[in-house]
Amino acid sequence: MTPEARGPRVVVVGQGYVGLALAMRAVEVGFDVVGFDRDEDRVKRLAAGDSYVEDVSAATLQQALASGRYEPTHDAARCEGFDVAVIDVPTPLSDGNPNLTHVEEAARILSGHLRPGATVILESTTYPGTTEELVAPILEEGSGLTAGVDFHLGYSPERIDPGNPTWNLVTIPKVVAGIDEASSDAVRGFFDQIVDQTVPVASTKIAELTKLLENTFRHVNIALVNEIAMFAGDLGIDVWEAIDAASTKPFGFMRFTPGPGVGGHCLPIDPSYLSWTVRHSLGRPFRFVELANDVNANMPDYVVRRLVHALNRMGKPVQGSRVLLLGLAYKRNTADARTAPGMIIAENLAELGADVRVADPHMRAEHVPFVLVEPTARDLTEADAVIVVTDHDAFDYELVREHASFVLDTRNRLAGPNIEPL
Ligand SMILES: NC(=O)c1ccc[n+]([C@@H]2O[C@H](COP(=O)([O-])OP(=O)(O)OC[C@H]3O[C@@H](n4cnc5c(N)ncnc54)[C@H](O)[C@@H]3O)[C@@H](O)[C@H]2O)c1
Questions:
Q1: Ligand 1 centre from 390 Cα, in Å?
Q2: Which of 179, 190, 125, 113 is nearest to 152 (CA)?
Q3: Spatial separation of the C-alpha atoms in residues 111 and 140, rounded to whole Å
Q4: For 11-42, what is each residue's pLDDT tens digit?
Q5: Which residue's CA is the nearest one to ligand 1's atom 35?
Q6: 355: CA distance to ligand 1 center in Å?
Q7: Are 159 and 172 in contact (CB under 8 A)?
């Protein structure tokens, strides 16, 4: 393709779960896309057509490369001359506080390449005020331009749900906002070409709060069912059947299920961005988040305690017992083990002297710091206990039920005399 024939130039900063998926979609709809990531190894893999993001297939990546409209790079100079730049870098916590150094760095890099008329969109999850109070000044300082006057600036939270076969980047409605009307139009205009439906809101702060509201809602409700599961177990009541029954109510109830804890880049982190804002700006706690953090963070310990008691009933010490974890990723049908509760459970059991084995068909051996097994009938038979941590569809649950002598099932996938639900 000749340079004259090229479409609008889009730069996506950060080529991880969110940024790579967006870059692929932008190529698909006809943009000329630079995927900038400061991680050289990642860029090399991308350039070789090797995708490390499960929801982006190697075929999609290779097609994008072959189109000549996708350029992965770690050279910041390639961000030059963009029409639209989207920031998709991590927003972690450091000592429980928001760490926005990646966003700051991304904004600094873009500021050096910002031209009048261009649009910058932040997609990373963050606290209300980040776009206007943190990103705008960095862009203005580095470019000598004024946000809202010379260039457009907005925020649009990403809602993708890795591994979800129904809802994807295109079909999930996209909340969009700008710091002024022209910016709102520019952000909406861009995403109208990417997704099926955009949902404009009146300010970037509202859009930022929307994402945190969604994830806090989920975090708190998971904590609620986790706490109920723990006391229902002590009371000898089957919480799963109660949840199924409650789910028949056609209004006013939303189904959440207990589990071994929360993991990944969102639930253990995002709600704390909101509680930080409340404490920082208003000097008071956001009690729901603090309670939910406490309950969910304790779930891996609770699972370990339950297993220790079960082994005790069998007359077996934890030390030397073989424990097989089914699933290590924090989420079903994905390979993402970032802050996964399974990792904490495995580490705690190993510390107690258990012989820990892990089966996770989605994960590569180099990312699993334990003995990785298939699991075969023999792996299951030889385990003193099996824990269903992540209920990947790829597991043969019938094989598990048939060959494992004892299963602690944190996901309610199995039933039988040898199965103990959470
Ligand atoms: N993963 C999800 O399912 C999901 C869903 C919705 C929202 N989010 C949010 O989206 C944001 C990105 O998350 P992710 O999961 O894609 O992260 P990720 O860790 O998968 O990818 C981020 C990428 O950004 C790169 N990076 C970091 N700083 C950079 C910089 N200054 N310049 C260029 N590249 C840089 C990293 O090398 C990495 O490749 C976060 O705020 C996250 O909370 C994630």
A1: 23
A2: 179
A3: 7
A4: 999 999 999 999 999 999 999 999 999 999 99
A5: 14
A6: 35
A7: yes
CB distance 264 to 336 below 8 Å: yes
Tell me: pLDDT of 5 over 80. no
Measure CA 297 to chain center: 17
Report the C-alpha gap between 84 and 207 in whole angstroms: 19
Q: Which 3 state secondary structure label does DSSP give 87?
A: strand
* Residue 132 DSSP one-character state: I
**C-alpha separations of 417 from 225, 231, 316, 390, 402 in Å:** 24, 22, 19, 21, 11
* H/E element, 328: none
Asked if 122 and 90 count as a contact pair (C-beta separation under 8 A), the reply is no
pLDDT digits (tens, 9 = 90+) for 113-125: 999 999 999 999 9
Q: Catalytic: 79?
A: no
Helix, strand, coil share (%) of the chain residues, nearest 5: 45, 15, 45
Pocket test for ligand 1, best of 89, 127, 210 (most atoms within 8 A of CB): 89
Closest among 336, 332, 331, 375 to 356, alpha carbons compared: 375
Helix (H, G, I), strand (E, B), or coil: what is residue 387? Answer: strand
Cα separation, 396 vs 260, in Å, equals 20
Residues pairing with 71 in the sheet: 34
* Residues present in the chain in total: 422
Collapsing DSSP to helix, strand or coil, 48 comes out as: coil
> Which band of pLDDT confidence, cut at 50, 70 and 90, is reported for residue 356?
very high
In a mutational test of the pocket of ligand 1, which residue from 11, 13, 17, 55 has the highest number of ligand atoms less than 8 Å from its CB?
Answer: 17
325 DSSP β-pair partners: 358, 387
| Average pLDDT, integer, range 45-49 | 98
Alpha-carbon gap, residue 362 to 322, rounded angstroms: 22
Cα(16) to ligand 1 centroid in Å equals 5
**311 SS3 class:** helix
Rg of the Cα trace of the chain? 24
DSSP symbols for 173-186: -EEEEESSHHHHHH
